[in-house]
Every structure is written in C-alpha cells, then in structure tokens.
Amino acid sequence: MDGTLIDSEPYWMAAETPLVERFGGTWTHEDALQLIGNDLEGSARILQGRGVEMAVPEIVDYLTDSVLQQLTENGVPFRPGAWEFLRELRERGVKTALVTMSRHRMAAHVAGLIEFDAFDVIFGGDDVERPKPYPDPYLAGARALDVDIRDCVAIEDSPTGLRAAVSSGAATIGVPNLIGLDGLGADVIWDTLAGRTFDHAADVWRAAHSGTGA
After folding, report:
1. Alpha-carbon distances of 110 from 13, 48, 161, 176, 199, rounded to whole Å
2. Any long-range contacts for 15-21 (C-beta under 8 Å, 24+ apart)?
3. Which residues have C-beta within 8 Å of that of residue 183, sequence separation ≥ 6?
4. Which of 177, 165, 160 is nearest to 204 (CA)?
5. Global model pTM greater than 0.90
6. How far is 129 from 90, CA to CA, in rounded Å?
7. Which of 12, 28, 122, 162 is the most buried (most CB within 10 A)?
8. Please, are residues 172 and 201 in contact by the beta-carbon 8 Å criterion?
9. What is the reported pLDDT for 213?
10. How far apart are CA 110 and CA 113, in angstroms?
11. What distances in angstroms separate CA 211 from CA 67, 202, 208, one per listed residue?
C-alpha cells in the first residue's frame, strides 16, 4: 500500500520526526528511509533506539493515528497510474489483495476511500505472525483469494516487500519509489505504473513462468 498504491511515505516521515524530537533526538530523511517497508514493531524498536521512551504498541498506535489523520485531512495521494491500473484490474474481473505492513485498520480505511470496490481481501501487518520480508503475508493473501501463489503477480516498492514477494513464489514487479530495487530478484522493474495495464502484468506473469524474463 504505502509507496506502491499511495504515496504516504512523507506522511510516515512527518509522524516520525516530531516523535523523536519530543524526546530530544534528531531524525533525518536518511533515518526515515531505513524504515520503508519495515513492519511497524521493528520500526518502533528503531525509534526506541533513537530515544523514544514509549512502549512498542504505543509508538505503533501513535504513528498509525498520525498517518490516518493526515490521510483524512489531505486525501489519498495515489501513486502515478495506480488508481487507473487497479480500476482496470477490477473491471477485468481480476482478484486483488492488499498486502501491507500498515495496520489492518489503516489499510481498510484507505481502501474505503477508493470510490470502487478495489480489493477482495486486505492483509495488514497485524494479520500475520511473520511480517515481510517473510513470504507469509503474500501466502496468506493467496489463500484468502483461493488461488495458487504461483498464479499471482505481486507489485512492490520497497526492498523488504520485494523480498517477501519473491520468496513467496509470485511473479514480481518492482516499482521503486524512494529506494532502488535493482538486484533483489524482481521479474521486472517498472519506473511507474502510469500507462501500465492488465496486459502488461499478464506478460510479466507469462515471462516469469516461461523463464525468459520480461
């Protein structure tokens, strides 16, 4: 979700900086990049290491509430082409799952702000025991859709998420946002979802299963 479907990473950074500063620390853009794609508990522990004197669940709730407030006030900042791509998939009858390390309540909130029925199932970071980079979230999503993971195409923007998708057995498309994805095993890297269609995704799946690359 974050960084692939919507450009919410600036919202997360805007939540992290004042939290660290409240406890006398400093938080730079480079520091924030470390957390992209991480599960929230892991991110909370990193923030604790930077002096945030709060329990992990408190940090997770604070960050989630802050980003939700920004989404409500500022709207959903879709990544280029993401809305159009997702809408075409739904019009073509393609099953879709939202697999994110954000809390389920945030993912459901974002999905609820989309003006069409965008996802069959939603899996948040609190819905699985082992988060990304483990393959569990993607495997759980495939089971919920009642499909074989090998028949799925996963789209990711972060190294952590891409590792999860690749290890799950899905065909994988990397669409980098703030961090490069070269050398992490994606079947293909797209600069953007703008102009991409169902047919492009199907081509990636076919190439991945034929072993020819895309």
Report:
1. 18, 28, 19, 21, 26
2. 15/62, 15/63, 15/66, 15/67, 15/70, 16/47, 16/63, 19/47, 19/52, 19/59, 19/62, 19/63, 20/47, 20/50, 20/51, 20/52
3. none
4. 165
5. no
6. 29
7. 162
8. no
9. 57
10. 5
11. 41, 14, 5
8 Å CB contact between 21 and 50? no
Torsion angle defined by CA atoms of residues 87, 191, 128 and 131, in that order, rounded to the nearest 10 degrees: -170
Pairing of strands 171-174, 188-189: parallel
SS3 58: helix
Average pLDDT for runs of 10 along the chain of length 214: 89 93 93 86 94 96 93 89 96 96 90 92 92 94 96 95 96 93 96 97 95 60
**Contact residues for 84 (Cβ-Cβ < 8 A; gap 6+):** 193, 194
Prior bond of 131 cis (ω within 30°): no
Cα radius of gyration rounded to whole Å, the chain? 17
Both tokens assigned to 13: 């950074």
